[in-house]
Amino acid sequence: MVIKVLGYLIHEDAMLQHGLKNGIGTDENIYARSSTIDNSFLDIAARGGVLGHARWVCVNVRGELRRCIALANNDRDDLLSLPPREQIDQLKAILNTKAEPKWYLYD
Prior knowledge:
This protein is α+β, with helices and mostly antiparallel strands. It is built from three helices and four strands.
């Protein structure tokens, strides 16, 4: 079975910049940078109302690994159910997008 996730692609650099701008972390070394990116995801998920309903995962887009805020998946062994529409709309507002989430190959 091919596992897919439904979510939004997010560039790691955009997450890093979000963290730096909001005082969430630093980029002084690779570990601090990684922590800042992860904590930025937590901040965006919390403000977007999907914390606890979303995961920060890697997906495969045309052979390239990308990061994604996953809102649901089709994995019967580790199911991530789609949050309510209100929460998706709140996340869309935080991400400043009108686009609906898309399906991506989980990697």
